[in-house]
Specification:
The chain is mainly alpha-helical. Among the domains are: 7-60, no CATH class; 72-127. Helices cover 48% and strands 6% of the residues. The protein contains six helices and four strands; from the N terminus they run βαβααββααα. It has helices spanning 12-17, 22-28, 32-41, 72-86, 91-95, 103-142, and strands spanning 7-8, 18-20, 45-46, 58-60. The strands form two sheets. Strands 1-3 form a two-stranded antiparallel ribbon. A two-stranded antiparallel sheet has the order 2-4. The longest helix has 40 residues, at 103-142. The radius of gyration is 33 Å and the shape is elongated. The termini are far apart.
């Protein structure tokens, strides 16, 4: 196998970080437009292990992030709020942060979560668990593990619905 095919470099961040060296530009003279056109059209092809060359007259300025950012906590909280909104769950339950809530708002958030859980449980029971139960019941009857005389003739008489009830004993009203 030969060497990796060369790739064209198009790294917007690098182009933004590489700013013109104005002292070098002063030596170019009045032909600034020609310099900018040449810099814009300049393409770099790279092979594996290559160093990125700068356009003549450019100077690379290092990127120095100020970490940790003092706004990081608010940013993460906002992201979690958007995620919880998309999943129909309250922020307090997703982030496990009940420090900014009182009893009534925490209870309302948990009731809302319970409603979401029961809706999802009903969907899973109807779309997945119930068809599997019906298949299992039919296979079990065909294997003669369960007695059900004339099963196919009397489909309506045999219990085909499983109670997929909630494990919670005290359901909120």
């Amino acid at each position: 196998m030969g060497a990796e095919p060369s790739r064209r470099l198009f790294d917007r961040d690098l182009r933004l970080a590489a700013k013109p060296d104005y002292r070098a530009l002063s030596r170019i003279g009045d032909d600034y437009d020609k310099y900018i056109a040449g810099r814009t059209a300049w393409q770099v092809t790279l092979k594996s292990g290559a160093v990125i060359p700068l356009y003549p007259g450019d100077k690379l300025n290092p990127f120095t992030p100020a970490r940790p950012n003092p706004n990081q906590g608010g940013f993460v909280e906002n992201c979690v709020r958007h995620l919880s909104l998309g999943t129909n769950l309250p922020y307090e339950l997703v982030y496990k942060d009940f420090s900014k809530t009182d009893y009534s708002s925490a209870r309302a958030a948990l009731l809302e979560a319970w409603r979401t859980f029961t809706t999802r449980r009903a969907w899973i029971a109807a779309a997945w668990a119930q068809p599997w139960y019906e298949l299992w019941l039919e296979e079990d009857i065909n294997a003669v593990n369960t007695e059900a005389p004339d099963f196919y003739a009397q489909l309506g008489l045999h219990p085909r619905q499983m109670d997929w009830g909630a494990p919670r004993l005290n359901r909120p009203r």
